[in-house]
Amino acid sequence: MRKINIFWNWFQDNNQTIKDLIIEIPKNQQNISYWLNKQLGYFSKELDFMIVFPIKENQKTEIIITANGNPDYFNQVIELINNAPVLRHWKFTAFIQPTEKIERIIKGLDEPYIFQEITIKTSEIKFLPLNYDDRIQKLDIIIYLKNYKIHCNTKILQQAIYIILQEILGEKALYQNINFIQLAQLQNKTEELIELYELQFYIDNINSLKL
User: pTM value?
Assistant: First the structure.
């Protein structure tokens, strides 16, 4: 509890500086991010953060604490957020949550993710279920990508897919429902493939059959 208090006390003292990070020059942004990461690391080196800046002036700045999908540290995320202070201009969130922009993805209007040399749009990704393991109640899936053959040996591609899946399902739900992910090249014939944005609906159907 002492480490939690130390982190949040530091955060409260520096919250305005962190809130203004978006308007700082790159050098100052790096410095602020470094100290925020360092302070969080004193509590747990396995946790990370994401800052979501408001679009409208009256909205709150959000900080998301994530365990990067590692269930061994889920409790630490929850404990930290449960002890967050009440600050007028801040929203504190445990875990990466599912995106609220599904309608834009369905229409193909979603913004592309750019990971170094890789550009991916969620609306262009499809999947197929491989196997459902009743013992652990998790699903194996194949993810089909347009340029998989080009980037198939790139670790960044695998990391990018996990980030996108967290956006679709949420960090905890991804761990709770998905066991194994295989990547493959998207072929010309896609009739049997399922749009990635339908993955949550597919999982919900499986879970409803178990009731």
Answer: 0.74
